[in-house]
Amino acid sequence: MELFGTAGIRGDVGETVTPALALQVGQATGAEAVAAADGEQVAFVVARDGRVTGEALVAAMVAGLESAGADTVKVGQAATPALAFASQGRYGVAITASHNPPTDNGIKLFCDGEEYSGAAETRIEERVAADHGPTEWDAWGSGEAAAVLPDYRDAVVEYARELGAPLDGLEIVVDCGNGMASTTTPAVLHELGAHIVTLNGNVDGHFPGRESKPTAETLGDCIAFLKEGSADFGIAHDGDADRIVILDSDGKVVHEDTVLAMLAEEYTRESDAEDPVVVTTPNASARIDERVREAGGHVERVALGYLHDGIAEARADGGDVVFAAEPWKHVHTQFGGWIDGVCSAAVLSRLFADSSLAARREPISERPYRKVSVPCPDERKEATMDKLANTLPAAFPDASVDDEYGVRLELPDASWVLVRPSGTEPYLRIYAESDTVDKLVSSARDVVETAIDG
Fold first, then answer.
1. Would you state the torsion angle of the CA atoms of residues 429, 110, 96, 332, taken in this order, to the nearest 10 degrees?
2. Which of 213, 266, 313, 374 has the maximal Cβ count within 10 Å?
3. Nearest-CA neighbor of 311 among 287, 344, 337?
4. Is 368 helix (H, G, I), strand (E, B) or coil?
5. Identified catalytic residue from 98, 212, 271, 349
């Protein structure tokens, strides 16, 4: 049984993420935690986003957890970062489908402020498959209600004030997308001193203002407002506020790797570690490596969707991880171990108040970027990737090679290309960045297609 993807369980509520599944996952997750507690009582904080189906799924999840012997603390609607914050020192469950359409929902599991590891998720899948049911009647847990948003917002404000400059006089457009950012980002930035214009700032699980995933195609109203107004920049979030998109004063979306590079450089430069480490993913741009090296640190990469495992591995090797991120999703390791778009909004705003978005963007090399999908049957993926581990480097003999998570080549001019198998579709993905990106993609594609056909 394979329930978990790279960001928890997610899918259609009529077919995949049903109340029956939430009950099973709740019982399995609760039983796993109780077994590991060695007699100590276990508590789970449970939150949901604004989706219409969230309340029923929370009820099923709570029933599963309590019938497995765990206590629950229901905190109602909350951004996923706020739930992660509240799970410090205990466990947490977020009922959310993030940026998926309103017909979907999902389950994300947390322990002490961090998402469950791949190994922990595998153990939950095994328990769900075994279907042990509830524990003895007199060992069931109990529940209570609590509020987490005030403490979380205060913590973000306090943390952000250590970086950058005051926001007094800064005008920021925040597009909440009818999601959980409505309860967090505008209030945090207002407390920090900014003048905030909020778009789609009411929580509505139908997402009437725009699609939940913030992209250049879905952010039309925000883009138009920035073009016509006088705001300094814009911020947009997805449905549960773990993702962030930055727009400049002309309404243009700033490339996600550029935003990542800004934060990575700042955290590296401010660190007093001997060799600060930034953890990111193979599909992230070499512009990040350039800025981190310039600031005195280095980058380590981990498989897409496994940032938390990468942080743990780097720390186990003695590394001082000052920041971790994949495109759109950032872990502010000094604040907490979770992906946090609200914290990113506060920190970036403070940085732009100190030195403008344009000024911070200026030294970053923004080369053309492409992502291409090449059809490859699932049964051919493993053999093809084995071949590409040899043939792709041979086609680019001057490149440095990293084949731990796909095959990633970095050329002497900082151009790069990555080939990796899709985890969900019959494709190999080619990612490339170069001043001559079309030529680079064409050359890489020839090698990939030859390996697939061979």
1. -70
2. 266
3. 337
4. coil
5. 98
3-state SS, one letter per residue, for 118-145: HHHHHHHHHHHHHCCCCCCHHHCCCEEE
**Burial letters for 389-409: b for 16+ Cβ neighbours within 10 Å, e otherwise?**
eebbbebbeebeeebebbbbb
Please state which CATH number belongs to domain 9-147. Answer: 3.40.120.10
Task: Report the C-alpha gap between 343 and 350 in whole angstroms.
Answer: 11
pLDDT at 263: 98
**Residues 6 or more apart from 28 whose CB is under 8 A from it?**
64, 68, 124, 127, 128, 132
Contact 325, 280 (CB under 8 A): yes
Any idea what the Cα angle at residue 321 is, between residues 317 and 323, rounded to 5°?
Answer: 150
Task: Please indicate, yes or no, whether the overall pTM of this predicted structure exceeds 0.90.
Answer: yes
CA 332 to CA 196: how far, in whole Å? 23
Give domain limits for the chain.
9-147, 369-453
Query: Per 3-state DSSP, what percentage of the chain is helix, strand, and coil (rounded to 5)?
Result: 40, 25, 40
The span from the CA of 340 to the CA of 194, in Å, is 20
Q: Are 453 and 428 in contact (CB under 8 A)?
A: no
pLDDT in tens, 316-360: 999 999 999 998 899 999 999 999 999 999 999 999 999 999 999
378 class by beta-carbon count within 10 Å (0-12 exposed, 13-18 middle, 19+ buried): exposed
Residue 198 has pLDDT above 70, yes or no: yes
Chain center to CA of 74: 23
Q: What pLDDT, on a 0 to 100 scale, did the predictor assign at position 305?
A: 82
In terms of Cα–Cα distance, which of 27, 77, 75, 73 is closest to 52?
77
Structure tokens at 332: 């502010």
Catalytic annotation on 443? no
Q: How far is CA 127 from CA 36, 62, 86, 262, 297, in A?
A: 14, 17, 26, 42, 42
Residue 422: burial class (beta carbons within 10 Å; 0-12, 13-18, 19+): middle
User: Does CATH number 3.60.150.10 belong to domain 369-453?
Assistant: no
The tens digit of pLDDT for each residue in 371-411 reads 999 999 989 999 999 999 999 999 999 999 988 889 999 99
